[in-house]
Amino acid sequence: MYEGSEELRNLKSRLHAAQVNRDRHEQVVEQLYRKEQAKQEEEAIAESMEYERRRAIEEDITDKIQKSQQRGRVTAINQQQIIAREAAKVESLYQAQREKAQVDEIVAKIEAEDKKEADERREKQEETRVLLRTTNLICFYLSISIWKFHLLICLSNIYWVLLIILYIGHMSS
Q1: CA distance 1 to 8
Q2: Rounded CA separation 161/155 (Å)
Q3: CA distance 69 to 57
Q4: How many angstroms from the chain centroid is the CA of residue 54?
Q5: For residue 1, what pLDDT is reported?
Q6: Do 90 and 98 form a contact (C-beta atoms < 8 A)?
Q7: pLDDT for res 159
Q8: How far apart are CA 121 and CA 168, in angstroms?
């Protein structure tokens, strides 16, 4: 009885349309939900990629800064080593000059002592020469004096012998 009624058919038709609309609506909502979810996933992926990109850039910048700082430290160490080597060279040169000055001073002292000894040796040689000449002259004069003395003795002996002879000759006559 009610099955055939127009109103019931109309209601069934509306109910069916409402169900179709509801199904479509659910499908559209589901599609929108999936799109939104896909969009959110894409945004999350894009955000994650952007985060990774920025993190990579930060790491790259950090690495560059660290490398730059390391180069700066290495450069500073190298400069300090160069300065230390130059200072060592200067100190070495200064030490060499000091030692050379000391050696020169010692050499000058030795030369002065050698000159003094040579001068003293020459003076002693000259004194010895003068002493030898003087001694030779004294010996010469002494030998002359001795010779004169001997001559005098001989003459004196001759005188005495002559006197004795004269005396003997005078006595015998």
Answers
A1: 10
A2: 9
A3: 18
A4: 48
A5: 44
A6: no
A7: 79
A8: 67
Q: Are 13 and 7 in contact (CB under 8 A)?
A: no
Distance of CA 78 to the CA centre of its chain: 13
- Write out the two tokens for 99: 């030692």
Whole-number Å distance between alpha carbons of 54 and 46: 12
Which ranges of the chain would DSSP assign to H, the alpha helix?
6-172
The pLDDT of residue 120 is 94
DSSP 2: -
CA-based nearest residue to 15, from 4, 31, 29, 23: 23
N-terminal to C-terminal alpha carbon distance within the chain:
243
Angle among Cα 15, 16, 17 to the nearest 5 degrees reads 90
- Per-residue pLDDT tens, the chain, 173 aa: give them: 455 688 888 888 888 999 999 999 999 888 988 988 988 899 899 999 999 999 999 999 999 999 999 999 999 999 999 999 999 999 999 999 999 999 999 999 999 999 999 999 999 999 999 988 888 888 888 788 887 888 778 878 887 887 788 888 888 76
